[in-house]
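User: What would this chain look like folded?
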Amino acid sequence: MKKFMLLAVGALSLGACAMVPTHAGSALIEMTNQPVSATNAIGNKTGKACAKNYFGIYLAGDMSIEAAKRNGRITQVASVNTEIKSYAVYSEVCTVVTGK
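Assistant: Here's the prediction, encoded as structure tokens.
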């Protein structure tokens, strides 16, 4: 029993080093571009880019400012915000860009 406990503690401590927490949560597989916050005046167009996390195992999506600009057809960024929706087994993080 003592060997099992030592092995379990060792595995948990090593596993924590491999996982990097993000806005969308920690995941075993991560494929995201994370936003950098910047704000100015509000623009008249809005673009949104999201990443989704399922069961804390699979995290995918492009939530970058560039993707949000592309989705909103924005050339000049006025503001950048992060929108987070999180449930027990699912979370979604979106970068919302306003501009012209």
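The CA atoms of residues 32 and 62 lie 5 Å apart. If you want, I can go into more detail on any region.
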